[in-house]
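Input record, target 12 of the design panel.
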């Protein structure tokens, strides 16, 4: 006898169940599953005359099953996802966001990985929640301690930002989402291992001083490029968007000594800059003085040569006049010399041929009367 012909279910205990009276929930009761099945069977009997056992009923059931199976091929891809279609487990193509269709299971299946979300992996540091202090960070020394090119130890914490690599245009092999799903079993673990290896390689060929000061951007770029080449070699379907250094310090055990060294190097660099500035100021001044002295000497040389040539020319001209009239020239030279010698001093003229016993010739000085200097009066 079927359950629908019994009054209280298979146990015959009425609506209370096999254990007697149970708790009754307040409000409207949920629909009975058996009642829903019974109503569905009755509607199917109405739609299929003769019941399910007839040939027509079987054909209708098979048709409904086929329609339902075909409709199961519709699927939706979200805006941040990409559909990866598999036919009997083999990759055959990708689909864009929106409503799409594939052959129903088990012929084709679809995977929808997120391809636009940027993911982050921290290396050398872990972030956790503390009930009292909130979010706290913990350093992981086995990941962050690295050896530099000059055999020093440095503590490097950094973050890697990555996403699923977009598919190459027109390519059916270099499909980022498919490579991401099938070529790497643990993508995050692989990316973390590759990032740590790349950072150790870049730090290992760089001295500690540039790492601690001005080479941070160069290190980030070099690590990003090396990671991308390595992951492309794995065909991991991963795009490294950014490598960001969080902290670059010496180990905590020797950080005080490193700070003293940094301060000493800063002082040395400051003193070198000051010395260079002094040299840049003094050297041009010295060169200017040397050029000025050289130019003065050149000018004196030219002047002396010109004066000597002028005196020589004057002497030659006087010599020519002397040879023409020796007595006149000699008298002229005597008078010019006397004028030059006595023109600037007080004079007393004594003429033995003058009348009187003293022989002093009266002299009227005109210079005080005219307001001119003795030299000017003598010149007149």
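The sequence produced for target 12 reads:
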């Amino acid at each position: 006898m079927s359950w629908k012909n019994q009054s209280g279910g298979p146990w015959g205990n009425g609506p209370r169940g096999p254990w007697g009276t149970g708790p009754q929930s307040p409000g409207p009761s949920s629909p009975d599953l058996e009642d829903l099945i019974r109503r569905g069977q009755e509607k199917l009997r109405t739609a299929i005359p003769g019941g399910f056992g007839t040939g027509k009923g079987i054909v209708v059931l098979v048709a409904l099953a086929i329609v339902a199976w075909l409709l199961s091929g519709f699927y939706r891809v979200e805006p941040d996802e990409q559909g990866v279609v598999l036919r009997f487990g083999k990759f055959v193509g990708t689909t864009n966001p929106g409503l799409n269709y594939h052959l129903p299971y088990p012929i084709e299946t679809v995977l929808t990985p997120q391809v636009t979300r940027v993911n982050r992996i921290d290396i050398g540091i872990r972030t956790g929640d503390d009930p009292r202090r909130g979010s706290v960070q913990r350093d992981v020394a086995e990941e962050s301690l690295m050896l530099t090119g000059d055999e020093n130890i440095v503590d490097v914490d950094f973050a890697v930002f990555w996403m699923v690599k977009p598919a190459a245009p027109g390519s059916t092999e270099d499909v980022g989402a498919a490579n991401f799903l099938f070529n790497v079993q643990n993508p995050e673990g692989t990316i973390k291992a590759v990032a740590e290896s790349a950072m150790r390689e870049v730090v290992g060929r760089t001295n500690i001083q540039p790492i601690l000061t001005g080479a941070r951007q160069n290190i980030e770029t070099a690590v990003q490029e090396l990671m991308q080449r390595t992951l492309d070699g794995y065909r991991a379907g991963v795009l490294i968007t950014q490598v960001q250094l969080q902290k670059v310090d010496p180990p905590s055990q020797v950080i005080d000594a490193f700070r003293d060294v940094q301060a000493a190097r800063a002082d040395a660099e400051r003193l070198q800059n000051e010395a260079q500035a002094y040299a840049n100021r003094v050297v041009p001044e010295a060169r200017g003085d040397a050029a000025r002295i050289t130019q003065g000497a050149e000018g004196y040389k030219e002047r002396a040569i010109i004066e000597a040539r002028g005196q020589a020319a004057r002497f030659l001209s006087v010599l020519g006049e002397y040879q023409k009239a020796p007595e006149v020239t000699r008298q002229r030279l005597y008078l010019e010399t006397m004028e030059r010698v006595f023109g600037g001093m007080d004079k007393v003229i004594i003429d033995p041929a003058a009348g009187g016993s003293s022989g002093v010739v009266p002299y009227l000085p005109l210079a005080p009367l005219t307001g001119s200097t003795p030299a000017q009066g003598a010149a007149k």
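The longest strand covers residues 153-164.
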